[in-house]
Amino acid sequence: MNSICNLFNIQYPIVQGGMVWTSGWRLASAVSNAGGLGLIGAGSMSADLLEEHIQKCQKATDKPFGVNIPLLYSKVEEQLDVIVKNKVSIVFTSAGNPMTYTSYLKEKGIKVVHVIGSSKQALKAQSAGVDAVVAEGFEAGGHNSKDETTTLVLIPEIVKAVSIPVIAAGGIASGKAILASMALGAKGVQIGTLFLMSKESSAHDNYKEYLTKLEQGGTSLTLKELTPVRIAKNQFYDELMELYAGHASVEELRAKLSKGRSKKGIFEGDLSDGELEVGQVASSIVQIQSVEEQFKRLILEYKEAFDQLKSEL
Amino acid sequence: MNSICNLFNIQYPIVQGGMVWTSGWRLASAVSNAGGLGLIGAGSMSADLLEEHIQKCQKATDKPFGVNIPLLYSKVEEQLDVIVKNKVSIVFTSAGNPMTYTSYLKEKGIKVVHVIGSSKQALKAQSAGVDAVVAEGFEAGGHNSKDETTTLVLIPEIVKAVSIPVIAAGGIASGKAILASMALGAKGVQIGTLFLMSKESSAHDNYKEYLTKLEQGGTSLTLKELTPVRIAKNQFYDELMELYAGHASVEELRAKLSKGRSKKGIFEGDLSDGELEVGQVASSIVQIQSVEEQFKRLILEYKEAFDQLKSEL
Fold this sequence. Notes:
Number of helices of chain A: 14
Distance between the termini of chain A: 28 Å
Helix content of chain A: 40-55%
Low-confidence stretches of chain A: none
Largest interface: A-B, 58 and 58 residues
Radius of gyration of chain A: 18 Å
Strand order of the largest sheet of chain A: 1-9-8-6-5-4-3-2
CATH class of the largest domain in chain A: Alpha Beta
Number of strands of chain A: 11
Oligomer: homodimer
Largest sheet of chain A: 8 strands, parallel
CATH topology of the largest domain in chain A: TIM Barrel
Strand content of chain A: 15-25%
Structural class of chain A: alpha/beta
């Protein structure tokens, strides 16, 4: 049996990435009900709101689901209390030190996965005792590694570096890309952008519609002086580039980003002034479907690509 | 039969990327003799030197080989005259407009392939009448597209956009990565960095040795204001970053780059002051082998990866 399916007790080794303002109980339960692993993205939630989403998700599915916790916010400990109290059995951590909470969570019987962008980080996560790592390449949306290593280069190096299963992330939105990830040695995939563009995601309809028309080169990894983040090139991005051209300080960049800008863009649908976090692969997604339709397509494409793959060497 | 093998009359659909100061007759003939397609990299050659390399390559192999011509230099027409005069049957063009010379070369019975970094460029190359395109992702070494689309995202989009065969480039140095490229719909691969790090490449031994120790994140796509280029992060790169931090003008950047800096680094082995063009995947290559050994390894890895690939969905 596939080690990722086995680890989480799921049908398909397809994990939905935890995304701010996008992946609440509705998206997470839809992915879990479709046979993948849904994740509630806690990054944009207070501990109370997270609890509400966990409880709604528990009602909406009897399949396993998890919570993604970015470790860079001050509310982490409250969020972890909510997770333990509500008996969530799977936690994905990202953007922080896997040493801090992994053993605490493991002692509570929780499966822990950490998101990494380099072999060094992967080895650290393995030492911390995580059950698997998500290896996320440069093309992924949202927060990303300064190293800029792409998924194609990163996956084989991480598979070689660690003995735990590797979940590939970044640039994956088709059955072909899932097959390619498996060929590189990944045991599962994490998919963000495609599920952001599902009917069940809580991203604003304006934003989803806008993304169906996004062209190649329409995103950029920027704000490397703060936390590097991949966003769509909208008016806010252009204004950031003007700040860079005018040699803005890190403080000026931080002030421009400000609090609430990702909510404004992703959740409220302000396409000009909002920060629009998304992966490169949005350029290949042209329609908004339900999660169930997306899963059917992914699995069909995967099977077709697998059957068509001949030994060419 | 594989369409790329068929197009070039070669055994394996593995093309060696044309690289400045690296791929003369010795490397190109070694790759062709191993069953792939060797390319003489004309970018760093005068027309006279190119002619010498073509004639030496013709003596060193009776297999097909080609010439890569970057279209951004003034010497292009002289180089094309040498190619026609010496009956070279395969030309790869890059970094320029495929409309300018493709029909001329096709009329001479020459097979033409153009290197692209977006669907728009691929469609333009197809309209110009090329036989195939090389789709090169962000992770590739040397000159690269401003779009920054990675190989994993780019290949399926190019395969969908055009009807001619697609050769994947960028981040490929293992049999696993060749298999992944095929899963994405590519019919062949172009490999640069691995062959740069072969015994037969004319890169300086200091440089090859240095690359065997390069770490993840050890390269960067920079000089985007001139022609974007991926280079190793050495002292010259650090000095460039200081210029950027000091808000240098495009003219100052151009003056810093100067003529001869890639020769200094790649060919003369000056690891501090030279410009060291190389792809991200160098971090996964730890030994210098002969081209023949590299081919044996690639094919063995490919077959193993192909045999191990199970349907996981």
